[in-house]
Amino acid sequence: MKRFAVFIVSLITLSLSFPVKAQYISAKAAVLISADTGEVLYALNSEQRLPMASTTKIMTALIVLQNGDLDKTVTITNEMIAVEGTSMGLSCGDILTRKDLLCGMMLVSGNDAANALAVSVGGSYDRFVALMNKKAAELGLENTHFETPSGLDGDSHYTSAYDLAVITKEALAFDEFASIVATESMSVSYGDPPCKRYLTNHNKLVKMYSDVKGVKTGFTKKSGRCLVSAAEKDGKRIIAVTLNDPNDWEDHRKLLDLGFSSLKVEDIRGLTVSLPVVGSDERIKVVTPKKEICVSKDKTVGERIIVPAFLYLPVRKGDVIGYTEYYVGEEVYLKEKIVSETDIKYKKDTFKSLWLIFSEIFRCINEG
């Protein structure tokens, strides 16, 4: 069995503890989380399964972004635009890039754009929806199931406020997504002949609240008003979700203010460790990056490096040699791979290399 060395640093800040007080909001369900750690700062029926209307498109965007190739062009068909509800005004024969369609889907909530992206990425609606449900399972979302890429109502089309916050956290990790949903308006060109079309963000919070960075509105008669917002101020990053909320704009103001007041920013200094390489006189130096992490004021943040006590030859550049874990309290919220940045090969003196290997193994057995 391999011996592992675990290097742990806990960063503790002495600060007063301010319990988060629940505030009255009009939503049937809501949640507020730290966008860094996923820590829940406020919850109201946050695990309840509810329809989510066009906030569905956050998951659609996530699947598209993970697939990549945003410059790939899509030729619009009648099948793609044969959908009810909001539209970005596509016509059969229009040619747009996936990025243009993302903009139309996220800013003006184009159901036609969502359908076009689904066919472009998945090959068909059903296969794309299967990708959406697969991703939900990978994220451990137990209260989410998709039937459409656009968010039109369905008997088995639902999520929870908490699950939707997790999906949003994943999507915001993509710079393209973060940039699009934070934009007040933009123009794209399509049509026959192509001409500029102006898209204005349906998310009024982008204008109403200076710290808001998106994300998405939604509404059907069944779901009521749904809203997901993300905001950032003074290094504090938060995500708020409300489902079936007739007063969502004002409620998100309350939630975002609550989030900023209940968080602090802690500095992760980073760790350094030097790993011996059996059979070589060289060592691998591991340095983790410095980070700023926002957590609630009564919590502590830490990191630990999990690596073997030693490495075996050969070590190749790009090899995964361990992991860095970041945690709040006892809960790990982020695990990152540590990869070798150099090559270390066998030396010509094979006998000496073998002797060093057996010596190191013998030393570790004795220490154990």
Overview of this protein structure:
- By secondary structure, this protein is α+β, with helices and mostly antiparallel strands.
- It folds into two domains: 110 residues, Peptidoglycan synthesis regulatory factor (PBP3), Domain 2 (Sandwich); 218 residues, Beta-lactamase, CATH 3.40.710.10.
- The protein is 29% helix and 32% strand.
- β8 and β9 form a beta hairpin.
N-to-C series of helices and strands: EEEHEHEHHHHHEEHEEEHEEEEEEEEH
Shape: globular
CATH class of the largest domain: Alpha Beta
- Tally of separate helices: 10
Helix content: 25-40%
Record the strand order, biggest sheet: 3-2-10-9-8
Class computed from helices, strands and strand pairing: alpha+beta
Low-confidence stretches: 1-22
* Portion in strands: 25-35%
Number of strands: 18
CATH architecture of the largest domain: 3-Layer(aba) Sandwich
For the biggest sheet, the summary is: 5 strands, antiparallel
End-to-end distance, in Å? 11 Å
Please give the radius of gyration in angstroms.
25 Å
Which short descriptors sum up this protein?
single chain; 368 residues; alpha+beta; Peptidoglycan synthesis regulatory factor (PBP3), Domain 2; Beta-lactamase; 5-stranded antiparallel beta sheet; 4-stranded antiparallel beta sheet; 18 strands; disordered N terminus
